[in-house]
Amino acid sequence: MHLSFSAVIEILGTMAFTVSGAFSAMQKKLDAFGVLIIGFVTAIGGGTLRDVLIGNTPVAWMRDLSVPLIILATTAITIGFKNHVSNLKITLLVFDALGLGLFTIIGIQKGLAINLNPGICIALGTITGCFGGVLRDMLLNHIPVLFHKELYAIPCITGGICYILLKPVVEPQIAEGVSVVVISTFRILSVRYNWRLPTV
Amino acid sequence: MHLSFSAVIEILGTMAFTVSGAFSAMQKKLDAFGVLIIGFVTAIGGGTLRDVLIGNTPVAWMRDLSVPLIILATTAITIGFKNHVSNLKITLLVFDALGLGLFTIIGIQKGLAINLNPGICIALGTITGCFGGVLRDMLLNHIPVLFHKELYAIPCITGGICYILLKPVVEPQIAEGVSVVVISTFRILSVRYNWRLPTV
Amino acid sequence: MHLSFSAVIEILGTMAFTVSGAFSAMQKKLDAFGVLIIGFVTAIGGGTLRDVLIGNTPVAWMRDLSVPLIILATTAITIGFKNHVSNLKITLLVFDALGLGLFTIIGIQKGLAINLNPGICIALGTITGCFGGVLRDMLLNHIPVLFHKELYAIPCITGGICYILLKPVVEPQIAEGVSVVVISTFRILSVRYNWRLPTV
């Protein structure tokens, strides 16, 4: 039950990340293959970078065929129904925020499993959640929005600290669930109220 | 005989990829070292990314000194004879297309050797063939041409499917040879007739 | 004594690289988190790429918490005292050049330790010294200055050749010290006298 709940969020998160990449690619007038690759990189980039940095290879998407298939199907649907998909803005924001939360916690767990320092694990979780979007922006020749426009990393770090603090004192599912909710809620509120970090 | 034939194509392909990178760098007015690095990244970027993703390290060019030496010599020749090299446009296109074909098949073989799913192996072969050019374009601050201007990946995927289908039923050299020819021919025709994928 | 001298240079070099990244990020009006990430990537990017290419994972900064902490503190100081830090231009150039020298030699040593060819080790050292700046420029959407504006790699290669030649004939500390001085001095002179490689 616990596993399958995480699995559902992982699928919804992967779909939301793919849609975000595919839309950015369509705005830049890429061809269908370019849209697929940008969707793919947005969805799996963070986890792939994490796996490469810790030496967990072949990287995750090569061992679990369901992820590439979900991305392929999501890209096809996004291209086919692009006018309708853009009406799902709020639904997608929620899925995206849930995915951000779950991917962050998964990244932290992978770091803890190889005994990295908790602070490093939070960085690793944040990389997992956020760097697919950084790679998307690099491929599309933007400065990553993560660095100047939107609040992605601060929610991940906040939720990551919650997870590290809760894990020794409550059941694993509760630590996970609470942290995912903290990250998602913080992310959604930051979009809703247009929170920004100050430039310096 | 078979091995040495592949080896010749690999050298010609490496040279053609290096020339393509070096020319792009010269158009951007980079210095001699920049031209070398862009040539180098274009030639070995795809195979390096493949090796990093599957954990095959140290990456290939670090273990086979002949590859860096060929790239160094090719860059020097390209800089020294830049006006003459640009007359070799068609020769370079043929070598580039043969290299694309061979590198794709080598990538697929590396994936099969560690028992990855055939679909993932085709993705790995396509990364091997195509991502040197993606890295070149990222370093030169373009959106990768692969994503909107030129047909690179579709020939690789088509030839990769041929290889996976032929491999169990014919001799290895024939499966390899046919697939390389499919990829190269498809690539050359796509340039000749200016085939594009639709934007979406 | 020898170790602690290297350690001091490593800390000063890490700080100088972080400041260089943080300043570039502030010029692009990034937010505080963006400034931190660009500082971080500039400081550890070269060593991280080296570790990934040779399979030395988890990469170095994940195993030595002092490095992320130094970067975090340096970024905070740079943001807090940004008007004063810019007066330290010459001090920072010296630290940056010393860091470039030391990081290059550390990269060469990591390559020699796994029996890579000495030429490849010099390339690995140059990647260690220079590619943090390349990643910084890619994230900030520039063509890397390394490729057209400044002399970074030639000093690294020159000092690397010194190190390879001296290592078998003198004591390790002397080979290291002389090579770091060669790289740093060459780098500082190239800035002072505005040396450039020719474009081609």
Automatic annotation (TrEMBL), chains A, B, C:
The keyword NADP does not apply. Residues 8-81, 94-167 form the Glycine transporter domain. The chain crosses the membrane at residues 7-26, 32-53, 65-84, 90-108, 120-139. Its main location: membrane. It is found in: Cell membrane. It comes from the Bacteria. Belongs to the UPF0126 family. This is Trimeric intracellular cation channel family protein. It comes from Mucilaginibacter conchicola.
